[in-house]
Amino acid sequence: MKKNILIILLIAISIVVIYYNSKRDENIVKNFALELVDESMPLEQILKTKINYSKKQKDVCLFFLKTVREEYNKNPEKIVITQSANSNVDVKSDAVKLNSGEHLFYVQFNKSLTVPFILNNKSEIIILFNLTKGGGGNLNNSRSDETMSK
Amino acid sequence: MKTNKQTNKQTNKQTNKQTNNLKRIIGCFFMALLFGINQSCNTEDQAFEPQSSIETVAKSDAISFVRNLNHSPKTTAKISGEQNQFEFDKVTQEKLTNTSELLTVIPMKTKAHNQRRRALFLRVGTQIESMIYHEFSDDSFTHNTFSGIVLMTRLNGDFIRAYRLKNNEYVIDLVPSKKPKFGQKTALRTNESVEPIELDEVVVYNRFKVSPGFVSLTNLANEVPISINWDPNYNGGGGSSGGAIVGPVEEKDVVVIGPDPEKVIDKINEYLKCFDLSKSAEVIIYVDQPLSNNSKAWSGTDVGHTFIAIQQGLTRRVFGYWPATSIYPAPGYSTDNMVFGNDENHHFDVSLSTPVDANKLFSIIAYASNAPKVYDLDNYNCTDFAIEVGKIAGLPLSDSYGSWPGGAGSNPGQLGQDIRNMTLPANSQRQTTEANAASNKGICN
After folding, report:
1. B438 near B316, Cβ under 8 Å?
2. d(CA B287, CA B290)
3. Chain B neighbors of A113, CB-CB under 8 A
4. DSSP H or E run through B35
5. pLDDT, tens digit, for every residue of B10-49?
6. Which residue among A89, A95, A131 sits closest to B328, beta carbon to beta carbon?
7. How far apart are alpha carbons B42 and B443 in whole angstroms?
8. Chain B residues 300-319 with a CB less than 8 Å from chain A
9. Averaging pLDDT over each range in A56-70, B145-159, B257-271, which range is the top one?
10. pTM to 2 decimals?
11. Is the N end or the C end of chain B the one with fewer CB atoms within 10 Å?
């Protein structure tokens, strides 16, 4: 009897831990998104504290963050975070390069702005400069921690 | 004395050997020419039987053929100055390989010591086919080996093919330089010729292995990748004969598979040379919207694509305007060199097709050949290209302007909606159910 209770308890703890971890990842992304749209937060600070980026990508990362903030402020809505499997936004799996321990999230800032981000195993955000050309071909599939081919 | 005789005999033997070689070359090129004629764009399924329609041209007919060209308004200017170059009294008929028919040859005068010209005639079907075969030898020319340039032109001077040989080995194909127009008097230099016309080297992409060794002149038409660089800006004679294609080239030879888009078109002129510019065709504008039936310029990751197809009989080519490497709507990243991409089977949400006459078809192909070299996401992108083509085709397309984070310009989202809502011109057709564009069709090489 005691043994059965112990097994059930272990299963329950595991579920809680898994749930907590998944929520933790989602919360990290959510906190990042909230800071991003917060006008009082300097973008440089967000970049340095939250984003994994290469030196050469600094400028384009800042431009990206600035653009997202501006687009959000045109039409502020409740921010919704979804993991890739649950998202309506279709990013082709072969277009996004996910390394081990990385997770793909979509942040819906408003109805016209849904942007994918990667969260790595160090809880850092990686910006995706993913741009596809309809049903075939990429215009860009680089990441903030890599150098864009220009 | 005996030694001199032996030397003469040896020299004659070498000369005969060279002459025999030449006959085989000529035979091959006429076969190749005939092959090119038979392999018109829209006859991909027709059986090819080159030898069945070859006939000898009587010497008198060949002479009359040249003299009658003098009265043709199209060729008077080009041929009249050359009339006295034909040595009609030295006309000969020579054997060809693989056929019992004879090749009629009229030698032509040259001033340059390193140049040799002959007009060649064969009857193909009911028509007399002709060409001038020029040889411009280098100093290293010997009786057994040829080094220099071989140039084939029509009698009016229109370019057919040129290539360089070194010690009988094929080196590279040559195309007329774009600066001087071939056929003009200034282009043909008959004095001390180093190079017959202004020629540029052309790189032909091969996916098959070409033997690096000796290229048999007899089989040259089969072994050397032959492609005539058709250029609508270049005065190639017009009509169906203007874009002459000689010899067998598989279509895949001119399409290079690149990383982005998946199929980069290396030479748009080659890609589109199948079309008969003297005939009408159909142009289709395809729009792949970021979100179907929505004017949004991007979906968050997708900006969509606009591309076109040209169809004429059994020939179809689908292509679009692409950046060569990558772009992104951020300062310093929104422009790139352009390439054309093979967009066959690309998904689309809306399409619009319209018939175009020969003049419009020519203009569209000329426009594609001279499309802006820089892909600019904001100012000239795939949608701008397709809109311009549509306008040439007579479609009343608007600028379809819209914005996306980091930029603004013509875009597939807006264009798709504009096409859905526009009043259709006569004879145009619209499709609003999403599908994949058709495949390319027709092998014309």
Report:
1. yes
2. 9
3. 300, 405
4. helix B2-38
5. 544 444 545 555 555 555 455 544 444 333 333 333 333 3
6. A131
7. 8
8. 300-305
9. A56-70
10. 0.54
11. N
